[in-house]
Structure formats: structure tokens, C-alpha cells
Amino acid sequence: MKDINIIFDADDTLWENQLIFNKFTAFFEKILEDNHINKKEALERLLFHDQESYKRNEFGNVYYCQSMKKTLKEFGKADDKILNTVQKKHDELFNRPPEVFSGVKDTLIYLKEKGFNLYLMTKGYYPVQMKKVEESNLEDLFISIIITTRKDKEIYENICRKYKFVKENTYMVGNSPKSDIIPAAETGMNAIYIPSKSLWELEHSEISQDLSNIYTLTDFNKLKEFFDGL
């Protein structure tokens, strides 16, 4: 068998993530309603702050919470009680072990036992992402854990050089067209797109039909069949 490398995204590929953000946003909207703040205007400002953080490679739940607080301050609703309520809800939602999707661990074990080289590559705030990796009980299945502040063509090229990957024998598995699929495929690696139930709006991007090294699977568990067929 060829020496095959498989790199896995983490959030919304191995475990639930965006739906937790959606719950946090719904909670924020309730605060807006209770305090008679124009929801449309406030959500536009929240998105603005989120985008500005993203440009600085500052994203994830910690920075999203900060963006909420900034938005409330702009609308004159930044007393300690409200800000503490936001922080408390953040801690309640995010300070818990990740909910690993059904079948993920079994699939990873299967692929590892078949001799595939497994790597994990996640984007975000290092302490938060590393904590999730450790609490997922999946860490030992990977040769290396890669935590980065961005995922683009340059980063994928650097990873291929660092680990001496043969690109045509390397696969990136993820749910984000913008971060996982398109830049990996553009380097010459293969990419396996597994759409998630929910996707952060800043991660949307159209996948070009010209990229023939992109494969789409409807379920993570179908990776067994896919790699058995190589």
C-alpha cells in the first residue's frame, strides 16, 4: 500500500462546534430583545467586529464573546450585570468537552489500524483548540497535532514541506470549503469535503468544478469505504 497521509480538520468535522456558536448567538439576540436594542443593527455590528477579529487571525469563542461585549457597549448596554451574563453563558456553553460525532472514533481507529498516517490540523486560538483536542480522547490516534491561526495555500505548502508529504498521496478532510478544501486542493493535495449541518458564514466559498482532486462524502463514516478503495 502507498504511504497515505490523511489530515483531519477538527471543529465540525470531528466534533460539534458551529451549533454551539448558534446557541450563543440566539442567547445574544434574546439580550437584544430584552433590552430593546435594534436586532438588525446590533447583529450587523457583531458581524463587523467578528470580521475585524478574523482579519487579525483572532477567532473562536473567546473572541466572539469579546465582539458581543463590544457591540453591547456601542449600544449603551454595557453594565456589569449584562456583561457578566454574557460571560457566564459563554462559559456554560464552551467550557465543556467537545461532543465527538457518532462513528468518528471508530473510523479513525479503523484507518489507523489499516496503516494510514493520521494528522489533525485545526485553526483557532491555541489554548482553546488544544484543550478540545485533549478532552476529545482522540489525541493518541494522530501522529501530530497542528494548530494554526489560518489555513491557506501557504500553510498547506509549509506542512507538506515540514512533514515531507507526497502531495498526491495526501488527503485533507474537512467541512470548510474556504479553509479545508480549496486551499489544500490548490496545493496539489487531495481534499475530501464532508459538509456539516451548520457552517460559519465567514467560511463559505464556492468550490470550483475545475479542481478534480476534490471528493465529496455525505458522512464521515464513509471514509472507511473511500480509503479501502484506493
Concise account of the structure shown:
The protein is α/β, with parallel strands linked by helices. Helix content is 49%, strand content 12%.
Describe it for me?
The protein is α/β, with parallel strands linked by helices and 230 residues long. The protein has 2 domains: 140 residues, Rossmann fold; 77 residues. It has 9 helices and 6 strands; from the N terminus they run βαααααβαβαβαββα. Strands 3-2-1-4-5-6 form a 6-stranded parallel beta sheet, sandwiched between helices. Helix 1 runs antiparallel to helix 4, helix 2 packs across helix 3 and helix 3 packs antiparallel against helix 4. It starts with a strand and ends with a helix. The mean pLDDT is 93. It holds the Pfam family Hydrolase.
Nearest-integer average pLDDT: 93
Overall geometry comes to elongated
Main β sheet profile:
6 strands, parallel
CATH topology of the largest domain: Rossmann fold
The CATH superfamily title of the largest domain: HAD superfamily/HAD-like
How many β-strands, per DSSP? Answer: 6
Helices and strands: which structural class? alpha/beta
- Give the helix tally: 9
Low-confidence stretches: none
What's the Cα radius of gyration?
19 Å
Beta-strand residue percentage: 5-15%
Distance between the termini: 9 Å
Kindly provide the name of the CATH class of the largest domain. Answer: Alpha Beta
Q: How many domains in all? A: 2
Q: Please tell me the CATH architecture of the largest domain by its name.
A: 3-Layer(aba) Sandwich
Oligomerization status of the protein chains: single chain
Helical residue percent band: 40-55%
Strand order of the largest sheet: 3-2-1-4-5-6
Order of helices and strands: EHHHHHEHEHEHEEH
GO molecular function, one term: phosphatase activity
Keywords: Hydrolase, Magnesium, Metal-binding
InterPro entries: HAD-like_hydrolase, HAD-like_sf, HAD_sf, PGP-like_dom2
Pfam family, one: Hydrolase
